[in-house]
Structures are given as C-alpha cells and as structure tokens.
Amino acid sequence: MDIAFGARTDVGLKRAHNEDSFCADPGLGLFVVCDGMGGQNAGEVASHLAVEVIQKHLLEARDGVGRPVIGQYDDRFSPRTNRLASAIRLANQIIHGAAQIKPEQAGMGTTVVSALITNQVLSVAHVGDSRLYLVRGDSLEPLTADHSLVAEQVRRGLLTEEEAELSPQRNIVTRALGVEESVEVDLDELPLMQGDRLLLCSDGLTRGVKSGDIMNVLRGEGDPQAACDELVRLANGAGGEDNTTVVLVALRTSSRGRIWTTIRRRWAAMWSS
User: Which of 41, 221, 254, 261 has CA 20 to 30 A from 19's CA?
Assistant: First the structure.
C-alpha cells in the first residue's frame, strides 16, 4: 500500500506560542503528534525534543545501529511496537534530564501519540491526551484512551462525556513525558486495510470540534492536506482556545496494484462483451 498524508499545526487564537510538534515520515512509516506543557517556551522544547528523539531512535533501529531497547520488552507485541515504546521511553528520559539541568525548563513535559506502520500492521503508542483515530468506512474509532483526570472520572462513572467537556479540570493530564524519571506507555497493535485512514491530533481539535463534525470533513474531503486544513479551520472557528495539530494518513493501493487492477478490469470487460 502507498501512504499519503496531510499535516497542519496552528497556534490558535488565544495562545502566544505553538507548543505542539509533529512528525510525518512516510518512508519510516512513522507519524507523531506531541502537545507540550510548561512555562516560558518549555512546552515547545519538550514537544520538539520528543519528536526528534522518537524519529532518530527508529531511524537508527531501521539502519541497524545497535541501540538497546529502553524499558521492559512486552512479548504481547511485535519488535516494531516494542521499538516504538523504547523510543518514547528514551524521549521521556531526555526531556526529564533536560528539565533537571535548566531551571527555566523545570517541570516541562509533553503528551505523545504515535503510529508506526509496518506493511499492513499498525503499532500504536501513546501517553497523555493527544489522540489517534482509525477512520474506516463511515466510522471514526478512537484507538487511544486519554490519560487525563476527567477521562478517568468518565471511565469510573463519576462524570458524563458532556460534563467532562465543560469541567474546569479538563486540562489536567495524569501522564506525560518528562515529568518523572520513567513513564508508562500504552501500546496496541492492529491490522490495517486498504482505504483506512489514521487521524492523529492534539486536544486543540477535539475540545472544540465534535466527532460528528470531524467525520463530516473526512467523509467529504478525499485529499488529506485539504482535510487537515479544514479541521484546523473548524477548531479556530470554535474559539481557537488552544494550539491545534492534525496529521491525517491515508492508506491507498500501491501504483503497481492500481495498474494490475486496471488491466484486470479491462480484460473482464473484453471477455464479457
């Protein structure tokens, strides 16, 4: 399958800085969105460090550079998914270490949501409340569960989804990179199908734009970049309270596959005429 993608990050209408960072590397099959937090410009530093370290760690692994896997290997998942988790744990160590050295960056951190595509298998790893959705047919399926205070309250039945959206505590994340010396990374793996799309986003999108409106954009716009532009426009139209980053990945039949499909259709038409 071929990979097409679009990406857009925007400061929004109320923030002075854009603390989001993203990576879109179709050659590596890697897509990442990070949403930084911290005073001054520390959030920008944290999210940028995370993206840089994750991409570099995976490039080195692909190129055969002998880097050890950081953290405990999880036998339930493939080596690629474990390598993605390793990259995130390494990013956590580096961000945490940088925050200890520079007082102006003390307490900085970042969320991370990442997708690694290997043939037709998707590796998912995330920490925090940035999200990954699988768009298959007419459905928008969340593949990550927020590590946030209100999300935990919803899971425990203490809040409804609607109450969580209005809660003054909705910005509190319960897990982030850089805050502690080590971090727990949630992992998943699933098979992909031709025509699937993956949407990675920071919470600037999901706090302002309803899932139905997101799906309407994805349903009506086939070009990934145009869809990303429209989603950011909707987020700003809803108030633009936060930075917004969206990455949309589309899995399409490879060009060789499209040629053979065309040939088969022509042969079928000739024999049926």
Answer: 221
The H-or-E segment that residue 229 falls in is helix 224-237
* Overall size of the chain counted in residues: 273
Please report which residue ranges of 63-202 form alpha helices under DSSP H.
79-101, 149-155, 161-166
For 114: left if phi > 0, alpha if psi spans -120 to 50, otherwise beta; the answer is beta
What is the three-class DSSP state of 185? coil
The H or E element spanning position 56 is helix 42-62
Q: What is the pLDDT of residues 134-174, one digit of tens each?
A: 999 999 999 999 999 999 999 999 999 889 888 989 889 99
Three-state DSSP at 76 gives: coil
Residue-wise pLDDT for 98-123, tens only, equals 999 988 888 899 999 999 999 999 99
Rounded CA gap, 17 and 15, in Å?
6
Are 123 and 218 in contact by the 8 Å Cβ rule? The answer is: no
In this prediction, residue 271 carries a pLDDT of: 53
Secondary element (H or E) of residue 141:
strand 139-142
Convert 203-235 to b/e letters by CB count within 10 Å (16 or more is b): bbbbbbbeeeebbebbeebeebeebbbbbbbbb
Find the radius of gyration of the CA atoms of the chain: 20
Tokens of 227: 């869809």
Q: Sheet containing 20-25: give its strands across.
A: 20-25, 30-37, 109-118, 121-127, 186-191
| Rounded distance between C-alpha atoms, residue 200 and residue 174, angstroms | 20
Classified as helix, coil or strand, 138 is: coil
Candidates 175, 237, 244, 199; CA nearest to 18 is 244
Structure pTM?
0.91
Dihedral angle computed from the Cα positions of residues 253, 231, 202 and 16, in that order, rounded to the nearest 10 degrees? 140
